[in-house]
Amino acid sequence: MNINTKSRVLFNDNELVSNFRVLIKESNINYSMSDELLMCFIHARKGDVQRAMKLLNNYVRMTKQYPKLAYLCPLRVKHVLDSHFFASPHREQNGCRILLINLRKWDLHICSLEDVFLALVFCFQRMVSELDTQTNGIVLILDVKDLSLNHVRQFTPYWVKIIADIAQDVFPIRFQGIHVVNEPRIMKVLVAIFWPFLSNKIRNRLFFHGQCFATVHQHVDPACLPSDYNGCMKSMDTMRFSSVFFESEYSKIFDCFN
């Protein structure tokens, strides 16, 4: 038995997985999926196997439409991770995994939007292998300082739809909050592009702080944040995020879709 520490829902893993496998057998999905993977989808939908089934169908459909998701390996995204694009310093006060995304590091000569997107999905895959992240979700902090028109031009309708789908209806992860900081004026254009594709739930969990980190602290304890955002931890630039993946065993629960 597992306890969802966020909502205090008691899950009977064996029963839920059994019920989920019945639904999968009735579908056209023929992958050899581990119980661990199935629990990712179940937790993402708070124990509702019918909704978990819908989420799984969406994920399988996406891997067929965009096969690179199914063949995602560490070396494919290592150059992005090594660029200090991402950091995950701590869990916040409610147990959510924090993921910092530092777009200040986005050099278009080194990383395409596809590179960044695949690295982000890779991070999600690794994080969702943690039970605490499955049950409590994640908090994103998106630093968009130095975002330029050239960056915004990368977000074609094709990519906007894929990114929005992954965040809402495809990947088995729960976003408890998305906090945008250091946004320049051009960010308004990017938000306008994404806005029609976002659900009301995501819109209500999206916050724009500018350079007012005190408002970030109203949501995330500064003890869990780097000094870049007036937090108590070391600078984000010094965090060795890629070592989380390359110095520990990489979870392969999503490899069944290869």
TrEMBL record:
<dbReference type="Pfam" id="PF00650">
    <property type="entry name" value="CRAL_TRIO"/>
</dbReference>
<dbReference type="GO" id="GO:1902936">
    <property type="term" value="F:phosphatidylinositol bisphosphate binding"/>
</dbReference>
<dbReference type="GO" id="GO:0016020">
    <property type="term" value="C:membrane"/>
</dbReference>
<dbReference type="InterPro" id="IPR036273">
    <property type="entry name" value="CRAL/TRIO_N_dom_sf"/>
</dbReference>
<dbReference type="InterPro" id="IPR001251">
    <property type="entry name" value="CRAL-TRIO_dom"/>
</dbReference>
<dbReference type="InterPro" id="IPR011074">
    <property type="entry name" value="CRAL/TRIO_N_dom"/>
</dbReference>
<feature type="domain" description="CRAL-TRIO">
    <location>
        <begin position="91"/>
        <end position="237"/>
    </location>
</feature>
<dbReference type="InterPro" id="IPR036865">
    <property type="entry name" value="CRAL-TRIO_dom_sf"/>
</dbReference>
<protein>
    <recommendedName>
        <fullName>CRAL-TRIO domain-containing protein</fullName>
    </recommendedName>
</protein>
